[in-house]
Amino acid sequence: MNAPLVIVGAGHAGGRAALTLREEGYSGRVMLIGDEPHLPYERPPLSKGLLQGATDLASCSLCDGARLAELGIEHVAGNPVSRLEPAHNRLQLADGQWLAYSGLLLATGGRARRLPQHLPHMLYLRTHDDAMALRAALRPGTRLVVIGGGFIGLEVAATARSMGCEVTVLEAGSRLAGRVLPPIISEALLALHRDHGVDVRLNVTLESIHADAVQLVGGQVLSCDLVVVGIGMQPNLELAAAAGLDVGQGIRVDAQLRTSVANIFAAGDVCEFQLGGVYQRQETWRNAEAQGRHAALSLLGRELPFDALPGFWSDQFDWGLLTVGAMTAQMVTRYLPTGGVLLFYLHGDGHLQGACGWAPGNSVARDIKLCERLIAARIPLTAANLSDPEQSLKHLLRS
Ligand SMILES: Cc1cc2nc3c(=O)[nH]c(=O)nc-3n(C[C@H](O)[C@H](O)[C@H](O)COP(=O)(O)OP(=O)(O)OC[C@H]3O[C@@H](n4cnc5c(N)ncnc54)[C@H](O)[C@@H]3O)c2cc1C
Q1: Are 5-111+233-299 and 318-398 the same fold in CATH?
Q2: Residue 19: its pLDDT value, please?
Q3: Whose CA is nearest to atom 19 of ligand 1?
Q4: What is the Å distance from ligand 1's center to 144 Cα?
């Protein structure tokens, strides 16, 4: 009997890959091995609805246990893979068991980057269990300091503020989410958070964290009950590195998501792939979804290049951010009647290569979908028609 296809990491990309194998008609053994005790689930609600208590783990899961069993996907929970031996096509689980594989997908995601200091009231947010611990600590009047003005930190700040907490955000840089967003959106985020009573401090450096306060360089002391650290994530690439696979900032793959070992693939947050000629990782729902599916096809021997457009979203208070494509090149701004804004990234030859929308609720979703189609269609556009809110994107697409 053939050894199974094995997926390491029962998160979003890994779960999606397992389901895709069955959707594509693969009838051999599929094993999905995770270190968390849960079924594969999507993480975006962890900083939003789930943190607020508006949703639960079951509604974040990719599928329920009965469905996995029905599909014959063998889910091993709470038993991480501790060792890979590519030369022998086998791996070892933490409980000592060895498993052979015919093909392997590494979808090990990442973990929250930690500060060296550890105190009981310092929390992180990566997993469902992290979210539940944080939810239990958020009460009206809780004085929360969020370290890091990136997406996770800002979403936690917005959710905690909506739950009645007193929230301060500390950001070392000169603007919010500055690594990935243009200044106009950083400014809008800053205004939104301040309007909702979040005390956002930019250009601040942390000196130390104490049981009831955070001290900044310069001597300022902020009293608090709780600290959430949101300073990015570290990809779980040690397993691959120890097995001798090529790694950079993630597990390096080629266009088919194949690692430096022919029958091992990687997908999701841990995967470093070439986008626009540059190796990079994408830490987004959209990438986990698309690469999970694609890696399954690669495991089945379909030699297709991965060329899905990148993109992400974030929800903060009652506003939504959505991006698609590459946010480089000439930026054209369209101010929307809702008070929101659409940014278009126009290539020198006149075609759209990316877009970013910021608007109340989900109101910009349709525009971003149209932008996605404009990017794919490579329709020549001008800055003048893109910046004009009277010019319907649907009309531009038809032209
Ligand atoms: C709080 C939060 C909010 C987010 N919000 C958004 C959002 O609004 N929009 C957006 O686009 N993206 C968002 N993201 C990002 C998105 O959720 C991730 O990009 C996505 O979950 C990545 O999927 P993945 O499968 O690569 O990794 P994960 O979902 O992290 O899954 C990896 C799994 O592998 C397990 N694992 C690791 N090592 C081993 C091992 N040795 N053996 C077995 N299992 C192992 C991990 O524990 C984990 O369960 C958010 C992420 C977080 C944490």
Answers
A1: no
A2: 98
A3: 284
A4: 24
- The answer to whether 372 and 324 have CB atoms below 8 angstroms apart is yes
Of the residues 132, 281, 285, which should be mutated to test ligand 1's pocket, given the most ligand atoms within 8 Å of the CB?
A: 285
pLDDT in tens, 259-315: 999 999 999 999 999 998 899 999 999 999 999 999 999 999 998 999 999 999 999
DSSP calls for 9-66:
--SHHHHHHHHHHHHTT--S-EEEE-SSSS--B-SGGGGTHHHHTSS-HHHHBSS-HH
Q: Report the topology of domain 114-229.
A: FAD/NAD(P)-binding domain (3.50.50)
Cβ < 6 Å from ligand 1: which residues?
8-14, 33-36, 43-44, 46-47, 80-81, 107-109, 125-126, 152, 236, 239, 268-270, 283-286, 288, 312-314
pLDDT, residue 1, reads: 63
Nearest CA to ligand 1 atom 34: 9
Q: What mean pLDDT do residues 125-142 have?
A: 98
Q: What is the pTM of this model?
A: 0.97
User: Which residues does 364 contact at the CB level (< 8 Å), separation at least 6?
Assistant: 320, 322, 336, 340, 342, 357, 358
Average pLDDT of every residue of the chain: 96
Ligand 1 pocket test: which of 43, 52, 132 has the largest number of ligand atoms within 8 Å of its C-beta?
A: 43
At 329, the pLDDT band (50, 70, 90 cuts) reads: confident
Q: Which CATH architecture group holds 318-398? A: 2-Layer Sandwich (3.30)
